[in-house]
Amino acid sequence: MEECGTIFIKKQGARQVKYVIIGSGSIGMLLSSYLAQQTNSLLLATHRNIQANQIEQKGLHLVHTDKITKVQHVRTSSCSALLKNNLTDIETIDVMIIAVKSHQVKQVLEDLKGIEHKVASILFLQNGMGHTEMFHDISIPEVAVGVVEHGAMRTNDWTVYHTGVGRLRWSYVQAGKKVIETAFSPLRLNEFPILQEKNWIPLLHSKLIVNACVNPLTALLMVKNGQLLENKYYLNMMSQVFDEACTVLETSEKDQMWEYVRDVCQKTSSNSSSMLLDFEKKRKTEIDSILGYLLRQAANKKIHAPIIAYLHDAIKGKEVEFREGEVES
Amino acid sequence: MEECGTIFIKKQGARQVKYVIIGSGSIGMLLSSYLAQQTNSLLLATHRNIQANQIEQKGLHLVHTDKITKVQHVRTSSCSALLKNNLTDIETIDVMIIAVKSHQVKQVLEDLKGIEHKVASILFLQNGMGHTEMFHDISIPEVAVGVVEHGAMRTNDWTVYHTGVGRLRWSYVQAGKKVIETAFSPLRLNEFPILQEKNWIPLLHSKLIVNACVNPLTALLMVKNGQLLENKYYLNMMSQVFDEACTVLETSEKDQMWEYVRDVCQKTSSNSSSMLLDFEKKRKTEIDSILGYLLRQAANKKIHAPIIAYLHDAIKGKEVEFREGEVES
């Protein structure tokens, strides 16, 4: 299973786009489930060997509106086998999709150095914008970013629930030979619509603002997303984060953006944010890529963002607590 | 037991100072335990009838350094019997000590109207400074405030643990006939030292700043007091509250005050703050008298205090959640 040289099924008629998805959390699994329905050249790279084995043995299970689909054509590999061993017999990858958490991107990019020349294009799907600060160091000619608006929940190593249909919106940072556009255009995935946007910065900014408004507060206050709208004090707290984030990012059309933030809260009102889930599992959050990114931008632009700094300290402090807990146990 | 006219034992030799303590939480019980060792004219007024009955039947139990003292001479009454019934046969009260939570002071003062003329002096022992905003409405000629630096824990209706020896520091707001000074001067309570201070405002300010720094953050972050020193992010959060509080209160000798805050945190490092306990029991906190007071002062003085306002929203929001929980249950 870790012999990556044999991962792609030989050509049968029309040439298949070769996808590699790095990261097998809920988003990596969801994306693999849908893309594999249109290609038989997809490899899902997992962090843990055991998950790769499980998916290989049982198949990847997608649950959506009470229907279970056992998805064919998903090959697996552990990330380490794929990225670190610098396999000489690996075929060229058309589209590599990075679906790991933002704080794992740095390591992935380092590991990727060895096979970069075999990768035609790369698409990043992180929360926040911390990963965009590393783009200068990538030598792959085609780079894109995307935001996933779906609800997904991974229930075990081989099963993912599609809990809410949204869109995958993506945009080029540098278009290269437009391999991604060519790959995505013919796809017909009714329950997983893919939409190309013109400009990557506003695309990421809007998601960043939502993440900045919703994630840290829901984690700190231990509430579902909808509570930020229903509780007038929490709404006030959120609106102050929003104001500072818009100032830092020099957001135009602020009223429209505030509507968008409220709308996302409303539509996901009974959801726990990813950062709240991280808190519940006492694990590292994506705070560095969300509020941390905003604070670095604020420092560059000499903008004062006291509330964001305060909230950032609260989340970083909790992470320190979690780490201390680990040492003790 | 609710016949308050008979609560004071008849004179036997020297005249006894007649104390009434309103509020039978940990502080009210602790104070009663020690004062009753020097007088047999002490009445403890409880919120609940059942607690008054329990203390009457079992005696008030004080636990200190593994020694249990069953305190004699503590009479009880429910607050409602004492304050609301406007008893005509009640004797004059020398010192009335208000040991209820800050948000209960308003109600006590309203109920007190009926017997105010029988009260020679009144001493307030609240956290924060919200209660000081009601002083203009009191017609009792002698008014004082105090801060309790002891550790105390009420384990049941008739038992209080003295978990840490500190001091009761108090000061006159208006000195009247100095009944309190005359009452306290001869007391010899080694484990409950009572210290008179010259100026009431700095006395309350120093306690207010400690409460503002420690209570809301420990509640929100759900940590013991010591964590605010040990976790560098939390320490940073606390120092920002401190800075704003000092600005609002126009505190001189800020360095010395910061030392005091850190010292209190250190000495109570393994304690849960009263606000954290309120959170754990999902009950109303003293936020209005602590950060709320600071915000009202800030508004009067046109001072910007964004961090205090933010933290205030977080605690108020939690209180709303608790109240909603009550309705549901």
Automatic annotation (TrEMBL), chains A, B:
Q: What is one process in the GO biological process aspect for this record?
A: pantothenate biosynthetic process
Q: Which residues form the Ketopantoate reductase N-terminal domain?
A: 20-172
- Recorded E.C. number(s)? 1.1.1.169
Pathway(s) it belongs to: Cofactor biosynthesis; (R)-pantothenate biosynthesis; (R)-pantoate from 3-methyl-2-oxobutanoate: step 2/2
Keyword field: NADP, Oxidoreductase, Pantothenate biosynthesis
Q: Which SUPFAM superfamilies match?
A: 6-phosphogluconate dehydrogenase C-terminal domain-like, NAD(P)-binding Rossmann-fold domains
One example of the protein's molecular function in GO is: NADP binding
GO cellular component assignments = cytoplasm
What is catalysed by this protein?
(R)-pantoate + NADP(+) = 2-dehydropantoate + NADPH + H(+)
List the InterPro entries hit by this protein, alphabetically: 6-PGluconate_DH-like_C_sf, 6PGD_dom2, ApbA, Ketopantoate_reductase, KPA_reductase, KPR_N, NAD(P)-bd_dom_sf
Instruction: Output the Gene3D superfamilies linked to this UniProt entry.
Output: N-(1-d-carboxylethyl)-l-norvaline Dehydrogenase, domain 2, NAD(P)-binding Rossmann-like Domain
* Coiled coil, from the record: none
Q: Where is the Ketopantoate reductase C-terminal domain?
A: 202-319
The similarity annotation says:
Belongs to the ketopantoate reductase family.
- Please give the function described in this protein's UniProt entry: Catalyzes the NADPH-dependent reduction of ketopantoate into pantoic acid.
- Which named protein is this? 2-dehydropantoate 2-reductase
Task: Tell me the organism.
Answer: Halalkalibacter wakoensis JCM 9140
Kindly list the organism's lineage: Bacteria, Bacillati, Bacillota, Bacilli, Bacillales
